[in-house]
Amino acid sequence: xxxxIFITGGASGIGLAAARRFWREGWTVGIGDIDExxxxxxxxxxxxxxxxxxxxxxxxxxxxxxxxxxxxxxxDVLLNNAGIARYGMFEDVTPDESDLQIDINVKGVINGxxxxxxxxxxxxxxxxxxxxxxxxxxxxxxxxxxxxxKHAVRGLSEALDAEFxxxxxxxxxxxxFFVETPILDAGSKGSxxxxxxxxxxxxxxxxxxxxxxxxxxxxxxxxxxxxxxAGRQASFxxxxxxxxxxxxxxxxxxx
Length: 255
Known about the structure:
Layout: E1 4-8, H1 13-24, E2 28-33, H2 36-46, E3 49-52, H3 58-72, E4 77-80, H4 95-121, E5 127-131, H5 144-163, E6 170-176, H6 195-198, H7 207-219, E7 224-227, H8 229-240, H9 242-252
Parallel strand pairs: 1-2, 1-4, 2-3, 4-5, 5-6, 6-7
Helix pairs in contact: 1-7, 3-4, 4-5, 8-9
């Protein structure tokens, strides 16, 4: 029986690139998304199992995974990938926009872990992979609440990796640097700037780069995986030069 992966937010961006990578490797692929036209295109391209899934809705989670298990026979990997961002200074991002980021980026991941655990426990060598961000290592100005959500995903992954050991389930956290996806064009109602406008000369990695790291995470034994050299450099600076990093960040926003 082919190995299987269910991917949230799989109709575009990193999720779609991961779906393509695993499909090429012979895996059975399932995709949950709210982008129904996008899922239809993916179903045509990859013969993937697709289902509408709003990750905030626990009932939809249960139905989506039950349907996928009936299709694939088992669940080897859940890729909790769905997420959103809103760019802007904290006071320019509305409370409703912050709530939405928390609901999708944090509660959606937690809902996925709850829904998937019984299926992962039933599959030997299974893995839960949560997509966070380098913003979960270094808090990013202009992305304060987004950074908070990704710190939460990173912390959740660390705790669950220890807890789920007794079930035979490993947990990994993938943390991309900036990746060329629609999220770079995310703004907020109170700002006319987007992430793309703000990153300047920072490197932007491809969705294939992220998919390759996710592929390694599905087969490796590490808990954390960073996408991009710049992300690894940021992690190094946060660990070994925190005061220098802090001064640079504050200087950039002093005006």
